[in-house]
Amino acid sequence: MVEFNPSSISITTTKKSYTSYPNGSYANTFLGSGNLGPDVMTRIFMALKSGINSEIKWALSTVCSLSFSSPGFINFEKFPFLGTELIKYFIQPFKVSTSNRTELIERLNFSLDSLLTLRNASQDLINQQWLSSVKNLKKNIITVLKTLIGWYYLGTTDSTQSSELYGEGFNYLLDLIETLSCYYIDNTKTDSLFHYLISILSYSRDKYVIISVVKSLGHLLIIRGNEEITSNCIDSISNDTLEQLISFFLLNDEELSYAVLQFLKEYLSSEAINQSYPTIKESQQWRLEQLLNNNSNVKILMKQLPRLIITNLPLNDPKLLPQLPSLSLTKRSLHSSVPTLVPELSSQLYDIIVKFHEPLRASTWLRCCYEPVYTNNTTEGVDKDLSGEVTQISLWKAYEKQFDKVWQTKEGEKQPAHSQWPKLLPAVDFIKNVSAAFPHSQAMVVNIEPEEPGQQPKRKFIIKGIQPRQFVVNIDVGNYDALKQKPRVATDSNDDVADSSLPIGHVDVAKFDHGLDSLSSYITSNGLNKEHLPSVNMISSELMEYIIASVLEKEGDSHFIDIFRDENLWLKDWIYANPSLIDGGIFSEKWLEYLV
């Protein structure tokens, strides 16, 4: 028997040595380290399938963020499960009712994230096509739209604690409808989406809501191919709706006008056949008549379409055109200058003006006997467009002489010869009043060089910018000449200098031809062509051409012609200043016939 002896057992303790790994790579020795896990889309799918609200919230918010930062990453054709889930959460709070307010808010947040993602993703053509092919999506959109209209405009939806979510979702939904409505074709007269959009026009005053709705309505008028559709939603558009759409032109908003123009183009060119008219052409003519039966529509279209045709085009302003030179003589004589003799008033005109109170009498006399003069003059300190001058003393003396019977006294008496006439304006006040009679004139002092060296220069007090008339004019003509806008004169300093080499009285034809060439070059400088017009101008021109060809040229209705003439008298000046409007086919020569 062997006795157990504990001391005979030797215990050896082995100390484990650890190797030092550079750069902290020791962590890689642990199980699972370096595994990146599933990719983002797989992680999103797992979260959506988990049914856990926190995971779903993360997945929807992540997808929404990706739709902004990486829109190409969202592809419903490649990931149909994602599209299906987004639609499910988008519609859920509007189809599944709950009395739990917290749960409702959570569902609305899910719905808003889903809707925003759908709205962003629908900007891609592939996603548009996929969403448009989803069964019942249009029906679900109508359900949501009905609820939001009830909350937004009618107050029939209880959303006191979620109004911000409803308001934000309403705008996103309209954007989604605008995109997908291009694919909803052959819509019937009873189409719910069409009528709900029409109802929004009756309530909304928001510019961008109206633009989105009008664009969607225009898309819904599209029909498939050449099939004879006799129950299209186009014929459910009321006259009131057409009048409302046309009235938007009066707001002079380019974005809104463009949306209405697109709608009218679809409305008038649609090949949908009306039940009462057997052919496409007759149906189109009937719709045009519906549009123009309203006198208000006609006036607005005749007024606004020509303006829309030329809006933002690089056109010459008729008010700034160079003045066409006249066939004037080179010079009157070797010593030609400003006329010094002032014409006298006729007895009839004198009897009228002499009874005026001052300063009206002085202003009226000045305008009848003097005229404003504009031409180039480079004298320092003087308006370069002013020419002609009279001395202040000669001006006062001529006025005093014209009305001498007012201030002269009878021999041996201190009373005026005709006390019933108002007193004459004092000389100082008379000179001050000249600038009121001729707003473009200038009172100034000119220094005259002395005849001999060492003498002080003489000072001459003049009125610049007027000169005596050759013949007296009546009061109306005088007022018009004095107060009309100062004409634009040529910038060439030689334009108003006669050629001294030519004989006296010679007609300076070369000068006239030069001015005519300058004017022609100016008005033909902006070559315009209808084929290169922006969309607003192009559609406006086509619509105007269609209306004129269908109504004015064929029927010659005097009522339409009168309206067109009354609203577009300004057009003649713009076409004169911009002949390329005719040459480029933007306006038709036939349209000018209705302006005469």
Secondary structure layout plus pairing:
Blueprint lengths: L39 H11 L2 H17 L10 H16 L5 H21 L3 H8 L4 H18 L8 H18 L11 H12 L3 H14 L18 H9 L6 H16 L10 H13 L2 H16 L36 H7 L6 H10 E3 L16 E3 H11 L1 H4 L19 H11 L4 E7 L9 E7 L1 E3 L6 H9 L25 H15 L11 H21 L2 H10 L3 H7 L2 H4 L5 H5 L3
Antiparallel strand pairs: 1-5, 2-4, 3-4
Helix pairs in contact: 1-2, 2-4, 3-4, 3-6, 4-7, 6-7, 6-8, 7-9, 8-9, 9-11, 10-13, 11-21, 13-21, 13-22, 15-18, 15-19
InterPro entries: ARM-type_fold (IPR016024), Chromatin_Remodeling_Comp (IPR052406), DNA-bd_RFX (IPR003150)
Protein name: Chromatin structure-remodeling complex subunit Rsc9p
Keywords: Chromatin regulator, Nucleus, Transcription, Transcription regulation
Question: Can you characterise this structure?
Answer:
With 596 residues, the chain is mostly helical. The chain has a domain at 347-409 and 416-497. The protein contains 25 helices and five strands. The chain has helices at residues 40-50, 53-69, 80-95, 101-121, 125-132, 137-154, 163-180, 192-203, 207-220, 239-247, 254-269, 280-292, 295-310, 347-353, 360-369, 392-402, 404-407, 427-437, 475-483, 509-523, 535-555, 558-567, 571-577, 580-583, 589-593, and strands at 370-372, 389-391, 442-448, 458-464, 466-468. The strands form two sheets. Strands 2-4-3 form a three-stranded antiparallel β-sheet. The longest helix is centred in the N-terminal third of the chain and has 21 residues, at 101-121. The protein is elongated. Mean pLDDT is 81; it is low at 1-27, 332-336, 376-385 and 489-497.
